[in-house]
Amino acid sequence: MTENQSREPQAPQESKPLIALVTSPKPFTDPLIRTIQTNALRSWRALGDEVAIVVVGDSAGAEQAAAEVGARYIPDVPTNEEGLPLVSAVFEAARDAGAPFIAYANADIILLPDFVSGVRAVAEHFERFLAVARRWDLDVTGLLDFAPGWDERLRAEVARRGSPHGFAGIDLFVFPREEYRDAPPLVIGRAGWDNWMIYHARSLGLPVVEMSPSVMVIHQNHHYNHLPHGEKPHRMLGSRRNVELAGGLGRMFTLWEATHTLRDGQVKHLPPRWGTFLHRLELLVKVAPIPGRARQILLRPLRLWREALERK
Prior knowledge:
The protein has about 300 residues and is of the alpha/beta class. About 35% of the residues lie in helices and about 20% in strands. Strands 1, 2, 3, 4, 5, 6, 7, 8, 9, 10, 11 and 12 form a 12-stranded mixed β-sheet that branches. Strand 11 and strand 12 (about 265-270) form a beta hairpin. It starts with 18 loop residues before the first strand and ends with a helix.
């Protein structure tokens, strides 16, 4: 073909998403759970084509909810004996979306557009990393309106009646797709696996970036009626098993173990903090061969001091 000859028109190439955002929802049977999970999924879809949503697990109503937001639906993933999805299987399902970054968020978490820009800022600074964020707790009882300006309306609601959660509640993780291929058989839906995520990154020498100053993560408050006797997850057998598989209480890291922060779009190294020292001391006391009552006496002032720092 000569230079002046016309070429056949090329079909436009489909752009790949930047982030594969995966979740494993609870059953959509309870009215409140259905409402807040629908809000979360709709907020993720409002982030645009840079985010591919992946819904895993065969919980009731999950397939329809995924279809409503154009998410990939993967019902069959490996589980433990309780039927809870394995962390490694959930991440593997997200890898199939082909995005360079994987994010996991609990299905009650609302994300705003600053999530995508925050991930971009961290990825421009580090090739390997784990990004996390502190959540804001908010009572939400109805379906939200995602018309233009929805994110600013939500920010105003959080400022008016939301409350920051403690540093141990970690509901969002972002990392390059090649990371976390060797996770132990931890399960989603029970405590401990999220703390291991931070420990694992730190054990590899990876930066752990706390994006909270630049990225708002909104947790919609809910009950635990879907669990036996309404018991909270951290008290259940599966949570204790997660802690054992993670290597014990000494590996239950929190946001205090973050090494960097994202502020004003810039990644900055975190200086030594009292909260980090107090939390590490708590972990040492928890695993030390100390009688139970003496351990509780030592832990109480450490915990109260640390929690006071978290409220600032």
